[in-house]
Structures are given as structure tokens and as C-alpha cells.
Specification:
The protein is an all-alpha fold. 91% of the residues lie in helices and 0% in strands. Helix 1 runs antiparallel to helix 2 (99-185). The chain is rod-shaped and about 135 Å long.
Length: 186
């Protein structure tokens, strides 16, 4: 039968304590690295949301500007239509400043103005949609920024918890070695 040398209990206890300390350090480091990665991901998402909010505001500004241009074009078309009506009436011997001719021009002007108001209202609704979208992005960015900070706090707590748990295990192992082996030896 082969002879097996006995490993002293002190060496086993020291190895157990060292292993617990190392596992605790790795666990604490892992918790912090995970927290940092989660925080960085949330911060990147917040930046993306901020960028999207900026783009939404630009789209809102563009919708308003396009509405203004389209309404101005409609105003010009209406003026041209009224000018053509006046010229046509005058060419046919009708006084463009009297009776039905005035009513005809007035109707054209009213319809043109209604079209302009509709164009402005549609542009304003489109812009409001983009502004609401931008506000949603801003709100989500705030949530993501808070998540970033919370991830760091949670990592610090998890790391501290790992350290305290490991310290408790080390203390328990040391106590067991110090007092548990003496009882057996006595």
C-alpha cells in the first residue's frame, strides 16, 4: 500500500481562506465590470435618444418651413387666378369691379385663403407630431441616463456585497480553523 503524506490542517485552512479571498475579489471585480458595461450601454442609448430628439426637431422645423413655402405658393396661385379672372372678365366687356364679377373674385380669394389655412394647419400637425416624437426621445434619454447611474450604483452594491460575503466566509473559515481544530486536537 502506498504511503500518503498527510497535509497539515493549517495548510488546508490557509488554502481554503486564500481561495475564498480570490473568489471574493473576482466576484467583486466581475460585478463592477458588469455594472460599468451596463452603464456604458445605457449612456450610449441616452445619447442615441438625444440625437433622435434633435433629428425630430429638425423634421418639425422642416415641416413648418415647407408649409410656409407651400402656403405662399398657393397665395401666388390665387393672385394669378384672380388676375386671370379680371383679365377674362374685362376682355368680355364685364366690369371686374362690379356685381357678380366681384363675387367671383371674392370666392376665388376665399377659397385660396382656405387652402392656405389648410396647408398651414397640416404643416403644424406634422410639426407637432415630430415635436411629440422629440419629447418622447428626450424622456427616454432621461430614463436611460438614470439607468446608467443606477447600473453603477447597483454594481457598487453588488461588489460590496461580494466583499462582505467573502469576508464573512474567510472569518468563518479562520474561526473554524482556530477553534474548531483545537477542540478536535484536545
Amino acid at each position: 500500500m502506498p504511503v500518503v503524506a498527510a497535509i497539515p490542517a493549517g495548510y488546508l485552512a490557509a488554502a481554503s481562506i486564500a481561495t475564498t479571498v480570490a473568489a471574493t475579489a473576482v466576484s467583486a471585480y466581475g460585478a463592477m465590470r458588469t455594472a460599468q458595461a451596463n452603464s456604458a450601454a445605457a449612456a450610449a442609448k441616452a445619447q442615441q435618444d438625444q440625437n433622435n430628439a434633435i433629428l425630430a426637431q429638425r423634421s418639425a422645423n422642416d415641416a413648418t418651413a415647407r408649409g410656409d413655402v407651400e402656403a405662399q405658393q398657393k397665395a401666388n396661385q390665387t393672385k394669378q387666378l384672380i388676375g386671370q379672372q379680371r383679365a377674362g372678365l374685362a376682355a368680355n366687356g364685364v366690369d371686374p369691379n362690379d356685381g357678380t364679377a366681384v363675387d367671383l373674385q371674392s370666392d376665388a380669394a376665399g377659397n385660396g385663403e382656405l387652402d392656405q389655412l389648410t396647408i398651414h394647419a397640416n404643416a403644424a400637425r406634422e410639426a407637432a407630431g415630430y415635436q411629440a416624437q422629440g419629447a418622447n426621445y428626450q424622456n427616454q434619454a432621461a430614463v436611460d441616463e438614470a439607468s446608467s447611474q443606477n447600473a453603477l450604483s447597483a454594481g457598487a452594491l453588488a461588489s460590496t456585497s461580494s466583499i462582505l460575503g467573502g469576508a464573512g466566509s474567510v472569518a468563518g473559515s479562520w474561526y473554524q480553523y482556530q477553534y474548531g481544530t483545537r477542540k478536535v486536537a484536545a
